[in-house]
Write a structure and sequence with these properties.
single chain; alpha+beta; five-stranded mixed beta sheet; 6 helices; 10 strands; about 25% helix
Length: about 190
């Protein structure tokens, strides 16, 4: 029976499924308990590692054409963002955007902030940036806000079998550059 964490979070059996997969494959991993947190930057601070070692997982809606919509789990380093244009080009899609929370939770079998870099749903394809699988230490929330997992990028790639594509952009590219300050007004005397 899956344990209840005492937090007001809907329970999914995703955590148990993940641990079963790791154990049956003989993966070397470590569980880390911490205060409940779903924000990448905050949970990295709780776990005590740089954000570049975290797997940031985003469920995307990819409209290939007017009739075909796919869902993709994009996995990028925690200090980066998903490059939506790169994903659009990868799938030769008309549109790529973030999935609505209900669809993301249904496909990822996890609530926002706890999405794994693994897919246990045939309708959710995993695409990971090469910098994720290259990590000697890869951290992510383990389908729970209060527990994380540490695994090597090599074991992650072996077990999750993601499509490896360059889909990460620098976090600074996320926000547009601030507009230049207006020149000061000089009033003649």
């Amino acid at each position: 029976m899956p344990e209840h964490t005492g937090h007001d979070v809907p329970h999914h059996d995703t955590y148990d499924h993940l641990i079963s997969l790791l154990d049956s494959a003989g993966a070397d991993y470590r569980l880390i308990d911490h205060e409940p947190e779903g924000s990448t930057e905050a949970v990295c601070a709780l776990r005590g590692h740089p954000a570049s070692e975290a797997a940031k997982c985003i469920v995307l809606r990819v409209k290939v054409d007017r009739r075909t919509t796919r869902h993709v789990l994009a996995v990028v380093p925690g200090d980066r963002r998903v490059d939506l244009d790169a994903v659009r080009a990868l799938f030769d899609a008309r549109y790529v955007g973030f999935s609505d929370p209900e669809t993301a939770e249904r496909l990822a079998h996890a609530v926002p902030g706890t999405v794994l870099p693994f897919s246990f749903d045939p309708d959710l394809e995993v695409v990971a940036d090469p910098d994720v699988v290259a990590q000697p230490k890869l951290y992510f929330n383990a389908a729970r806000l209060d527990r994380s997992l540490l695994i090597s990028g090599t074991d992650y790639e072996r077990l999750a079998r993601p499509r490896i594509e360059r889909i990460a952009a620098s976090a600074s590219a996320q926000a547009p550059a601030p507009a230049p300050a207006p020149a000061p007004t000089v009033t003649p005397r």
